[in-house]
Amino acid sequence: MRSGESLYNFIAIEGNIGAGKTTLAAKLSDDFNSRLILEQFAENPFLPKFYAEPDKYAFALELSFLAERYQQLKGELSRQDIFKPCIVSDYFFLKSLIFAKANLSEDEHELYSKLFHIINDSLPKPDLFVYLYHDISRLQENIKKRGRNYEQNISDDYLIKIQTAYFDFIKQLGDLRIIIVDVNNIDFANDEEHYRQLIKIINQPHSQGITRLKV
Q1: Residue 3's pLDDT is what?
Q2: Which of 29, 118, 165, 213 has the fewest CB atoms inside 10 Å of its own CB, making it the most exposed?
Q3: pLDDT (tens digit, 9 = 90+) per residue, 164-210?
């Protein structure tokens, strides 16, 4: 059963690896009768190679993700659909810079950042940026449950590094509506009541800046 229309035209869902971004984006899209943009990470041939040999494949991985994300978002966000004016995405283009900072050497990151900023300004920013916060132990549980072979050896240290990188960048985004939602104590994927609590938080007026909430 749909909850109705969204207050926002473009919602981007973000979070660490295993946070439930795709699950939530799909559920919101159904409720709001919106267009859904899902990151095509499973098709990236460098991803399994990166987890096996990160130093060797990090730059190729990040460049390929940058190109794929830009091409997808540029196409989808420029297309008009009068029947589905709202868009929900399970990623924000900014994540390209976040993961690059965590994975690349200083020289590689400097070059990557130049490329990122050249193309980033041509993409619309989301009206609402939702960050799903989980403790590292909860993220590891989710990663184990979904069973992707190449993710099973992701370390706590790597997840902490990604989480820290997200928070560092979020602090710099004062020109966006951002909500950081602590979802450690709910199961929005399987519990309808929990999901309804979360959707109520998301689909309400939010002022510009960072708002921290707990479900």
Answers
A1: 60
A2: 118
A3: 999 999 998 878 999 999 999 999 999 999 999 999 999 999 999 99
Q: Tell me the Ramachandran region of residue 91: left when phi exceeds 0, alpha when psi lies from -120 to 50, beta otherwise.
A: beta
Mean pLDDT to the nearest integer, 84-113: 94
* 153, 182 Cβ separation under 8 angstroms: no
Rounded to whole angstroms, what are the CA distances from 85 to 25, 71, 88, 130, 148? 15, 20, 10, 19, 33
Give pLDDT, residue 182.
97
Side chain identity at 115, as an amino acid letter?
L
Helix, strand, coil % (nearest 5) of the chain? 50, 15, 35
Specify the 3-state DSSP secondary structure of 59: helix
Helix (H) or strand (E) holding 41: none
Q: What's the confidence (pLDDT) of residue 1?
A: 43
pLDDT at 196: 94
* Domain extent listing, the chain: 10-214
Written out in words, the top-level CATH class of the domain with range 10-214 is alpha beta
Report CA-CA distances (Å) from 190 to 4, 37, 144: 20, 22, 17
Instruction: Provide mean pLDDT across the span 23-46.
Output: 92
Among 30, 31, 81, 90, the one annotated catalytic: 90
CA–CA–CA angle 193, 198, 201 (5° rounding): 130
**Cα distance between residue 215 and residue 213, in whole Å:** 7
Q: Please check whether residue 100 is in contact with residue 137, taking contact to mean a CB–CB distance below 8 angstroms.
A: no
